[in-house]
Design goal:
Blueprint (H helix, E strand, L loop, with lengths): L4 E5 L9 H11 L3 E4 L6 H18 L3 E4 L2 H7 L3 E5 H10 L8 H9 L3 E6 L2 H9 L4 E5 L14 H9 L6 E4 L7 H6 L4 E4 L1 H5 L3 H9 L1
Parallel strand pairs: 1-2, 1-8, 2-3, 3-4, 4-5, 5-6, 6-7, 7-8
């Protein structure tokens, strides 16, 4: 994925207005990628949503990364899949993959994706994600955020400790705003993820431009 850019993570429960209209707006704003994170949907509901949204993303040239539902990825062949680390470990185990082989290549071929991501909350998580073939990770949460009420952000030193160890892109997540993204980039992040601000924004294109400035 492109460095120094923004990934939009979806959450329909935070959406202001029609959810599908918001998805189209985000795709047309051309973030680095969209992670379709609707893990409380049934697999059938999620598959129907992806089947509708994937052609729109392809028409716009916006990468679509699925979240959690790797069977849907295997069938519909999006650009990527983002998995909780324990799910990625289970998938590799089920496929009989180990560190002596080309885990990344096997997963990419099996799931039909180019991007493999995981969410990491420690340096150890990040190293494990690398062993399991990830092409990028999300590291967080960095700042205090309403999405993680009561849990203090892990901070910039945490982010720096992860980026210094990794050879692939690390995207900061958690409380990232146009006012603090430069701090995250200075700590080595390739870019950042936003969720609530994208879901609640009245103009996603202007929001992304505010980060890019």
């Amino acid at each position: 994925m492109k460095g120094s850019d923004i990934i939009c993570v979806t959450n329909r429960h935070l959406c202001r207005g029609d959810y599908r209209e918001k998805l189209v707006e985000i795709a047309k704003a051309h973030p680095s990628a969209i992670i379709l994170r609707e893990k409380d949907m049934s697999e059938d509901e999620y598959k129907e949503l992806v089947a509708w949204f994937l052609p729109i993303c392809r028409e716009e040239g916006t990468k679509l990364i699925l979240h959690y539902f790797y069977r849907v990825a295997r069938e519909l062949r999006p650009d990527g899949i983002h998995l909780p680390l324990h799910v990625l470990e289970e998938l590799c185990s089920d496929m009989g993959l180990d560190q002596s082989g080309d885990i990344r290549g096997e997963l990419q071929n099996e799931l039909g994706v180019s991007e493999l991501g995981a969410s990491c909350h420690s340096v150890e998580d990040a190293k494990r994600a690398e062993e399991l073939g990830c092409t990028y990770i999300l590291a967080g949460h960095i700042y205090d955020t309403d999405c993680k009420k009561g849990l203090p952000g892990r901070g910039l030193e945490f982010l720096r400790s992860v980026t210094e160890e990794m050879t692939f892109p690390v995207y900061a997540i958690g409380g990232i705003s146009p006012e603090n993204i430069d701090e995250a980039l200075s700590a080595g992040a390739a870019g950042a993820c936003i969720m609530s601000s994208a879901m609640e924004s009245e103009n996603v294109g202007e929001l992304l431009n505010s980060f890019r400035r």
